[in-house]
Amino acid sequence: xxxxxxxxxxxxxxARVKAEARRLGFSDAGITDLxxxxxxxxxxxxLARGLAGTMRYMHRQAERRKRPAEIVAGAIRVVVVMYNYAxxxxxxxxxxxxxAKYARGPDYHQALRPALDGLAMFIREIGGPxxxxxxxxxxxxxxxxxxxxxxxxxxxxxxxMLITPMRGxxxxxxxxxxxxxxxxxxxxxxxxxxxxxxxxxxxxTAAFPKPRVLDATxxxxxxxxxxxxxxxxxxxxxxxxxxxxxxxxxxVCPWNQKFARTDGGGLLPLDPARAWVPLDxxxxxxxxxxxxxxxxxxxxxxxxxxxxxxxxLAAANASRLESS
Length: 324
Ligand code: B12
Ligand code: SF4
Ligand code: SF4
Prior knowledge:
- By secondary structure, this protein is α+β, with helices and mostly antiparallel strands.
- The protein has two domains: 5-86 and 107-178, no CATH class; 198-323, no CATH class.
- It has 15 helices and nine strands.
- The relative contact order is 0.18.
- One iron/sulfur cluster binds next to helix 9 and helix 11.
């Protein structure tokens, strides 16, 4: 075998895999290895300070998150794919609650899965019968943003989001871990945040103790999606009209304001009309109708009781605003 045959093959395979990812509807793809993440200490500190709140799975997955080679036995590469879901926001109607952009349609975990499984199959076909390729959409201990940065897809902004030049951060990430030797991309080394602090300043609940560290227990996204039980009044009064998730630290980012592109590949059909829901919607629904209307969307995660709690907070915030 010629000495450079293997690298040439891995370069050619990598190019085919990335082209296939784009053909399947992903906005971009990058490849990296599975060596331990250089920021494992940041994860340990985050967990030790209790900043994960009740997300126990973050503790359970920590060791594998720091050493992604341990996630799938035999895997040596990860193909990280990105899906762009940016779309125009509708103007706020009165007495409505705001839903984060990514959640205005089907649950992306299910919606991206068939295309990602298709990519995994393509990689196995390239690699031959004994090859492994396993797909993950925000599941398991895959440190998606770090791997995406290492795979050259962008940098991690002060708001902790993966930001891609000429695209921004309204993107979802997913990955395929594989035993097939694919040429790795160079990491994205630059930090393009510069002296900007817009996201840190705009966060309604002051959830960033410092740049690139998020106290999830203060984040509206955590409070409205992950957290069960009553929200502390000093935080609940800052969640504004958000009833599911929050986009503030992305909406103010100049990289989104200048470069967000509404050219998503059709894998996740979002409906801008679902950006705002009447605040009395959830009180009027029973479990069965909630399931029919929202069971296939991300709003199923907090469920009917969670959405009632979130809508009550938003209604209280609206009436406080009116009377002030
Ligand atoms: C737990 C979680 C949350 C938690 C905690 C968020 C957080 N910042 O940690 C909550 C519920 C709050 C949340 C909210 C949201 N989330 Co979330 N979340 C996750 C999840 C499952 C794990 C993230 C994690 O590891 N957190 C632990 C902390 C410590 O990690 P980290 O902040 O990413 O920091 C790491 C790196 O930044 C690195 N690091 C530290 N310093 C430095 C410095 C440099 C220079 C570098 C390179 C790296 C680096 O070390 C850290 C440790 O690994 C991922 C999916 C996954 N499997 O990874 C999705 C994920 C991060 N979430 C996502 C989204 C879309 C959101 C929301 C926008 C949803 C919304 N609209 O409400 C918000 C955004 C809030 C925000 N500003 O982060 C996307 C982000 C896509 C992107 N383009 O970045 C992901 C990747 C899901 C997906 N599959 O697409 N999320
Ligand atoms: S998602 Fe909202 S609450 Fe959470 S950090 Fe960003 S701006 Fe703050
Ligand atoms: S708002 Fe500014 S500091 Fe925050 S992520 Fe965007 S560029 Fe970076």
